[in-house]
Design a protein that fits this description.
This protein is α/β, with parallel strands linked by helices and about 260 residues long. It has helices spanning about 20-30, 45-50, 65-80, 105-125, 150-170, 190-195, 200-205, 210-220, 230-240, and strands at about 10-15, 35-40, 55-60, 85-90, 135-140, 180-185, 250-255. Strands 3-2-1-4-5-6-7 form a 7-stranded parallel β-sheet, sandwiched between helices. Helix 4 (about 105-125) links the parallel strand 4 (about 85-90) and strand 5 (about 135-140). Helix 4 packs parallel to helix 5 (about 150-170). It is globular, with a radius of gyration of 18 Å. The structure holds NADP nicotinamide-adenine-dinucleotide phosphate. NADP nicotinamide-adenine-dinucleotide phosphate binds near residues 37, 92 and 141. GO terms for molecular function: oxidoreductase activity. InterPro entries: NAD(P)-bd_dom_sf (IPR036291), SDR (IPR050259), SDR_fam (IPR002347). Keywords: Oxidoreductase. Belongs to the short-chain dehydrogenases/reductases (SDR) family.
């Protein structure tokens, strides 16, 4: 299926690794022009830029300020003449294993900022450039509707992101701008395995074996495995394409059947 993304201009946040990198790569493979933002320009992202012949540009930005979001979107406008697709992919989770009373305002603020306000800022920067036929895809999580006391600030931030996404779709839909959300279940990325990631944090707190923990987590999926970042990217690209021209204000789960309700 031709997604008609060739020549379209996309801005992807959190593009240095994991899902954001997979989305950036998939967009480039479809012939889109991409401005990719993250704090770190990883070797993988640099390699993608180098191989793209100018179609992918990467910017080192900490999207915890409006100025950085404006700069990221501004790069797309000045280099490629506008923005057709915004993929709000930045997010972060730090398991808080000490219970609700152990969580400080600072920790709440971090979780709400990275999971909600980063997307709000990028949307604020991009919206004036989004013409009829353009769209926004927000990367949320199934945890936005599966509340979990080990990740209070993550689930609250993502629930707010999904709610924001729906509300925005009502405002901008009549102007021809679509807004949708992708909600993955566990995805095979470093978010799970790096030193301050989910698995090592839980392993340290409850003293289980990391391999056993990840195996148990995989068994929660009906398919018996984590989703791959590339599989999430495929859903994001479909929503970003005009093949999904009347898909609007929707939330698509990709979770290997982890959610057992209809
Ligand atoms: P990841 O590997 O931790 O990647 C997160 C990305 O966000 C990185 O590129 C990171 O780059 C960037 N980032 C974080 N803070 C930033 C900031 N202040 N400014 C700019 N960039 C920032 O995570 P992932 O697993 O790919 O997850 C991507 C999205 O999917 C997140 O929203 C996550 O919540 C969601 N999700 C993931 C899973 C999963 O199981 N992996 C499941 C459901 C939903 P730098 O650190 O270089 O800035």
């Amino acid at each position: 299926m031709d997604l008609h993304l060739s020549g379209r201009v996309a801005v992807v946040t959190g593009a240095s690794r994991g899902i954001g990198l997979a989305v950036t790569r998939a967009l480039a493979e479809e012939g889109a022009r991409v401005v990719a933002g993250a704090r770190t320009l990883t070797p993988d992202l640099r390699a993608l830029v180098a191989a793209s012949g100018g179609a992918v540009r990467a910017l080192s930005v900490d999207l915890s300020t409006q100025e950085a979001a404006d700069r990221l979107v501004g790069e797309a406008v000045s280099a490629f003449g506008g923005v057709d697709v915004l993929v709000n992919n930045v997010g972060g989770v730090r398991p808080r294993m000490g219970g609700f009373l152990s969580i400080t305002d600072e920790q709440w603020t971090w979780g709400l900022d990275v999971n909600l306000l980063v997307a709000v800022r990028a949307t604020r920067a991009a919206l004036p450039h989004l013409k009829a036929g353009s769209n926004i895809v927000n990367v949320s999580t199934v945890m936005s509707f599966l509340a979990d006391p080990d990740v209070y600030d993550y689930t609250a931030g993502k629930a707010a992101l999904s709610n924001f996404s729906k509300a925005l779709s009502k405002e901008v839909g009549p102007k021809g701008v679509r807004v949708n959300t992708v909600s993955p279940g566990p995805v095979e990325t470093e978010l799970w395995t790096r030193e301050d990631g989910i698995a090592p944090t839980v392993v340290r707190a409850v003293g289980v074996d990391q391999e056993a923990f990840l195996k148990e987590m995989a068994s929660r999926m009906v398919t018996g495995r984590f989703t791959k970042a590339e599989e999430v990217a495929d859903v994001v690209l479909f929503l970003a394409s005009d093949r999904a021209a009347n898909v609007h204000g929707s939330d698509f789960s990709i979770d290997g059947g982890m959610i057992t309700t209809m």
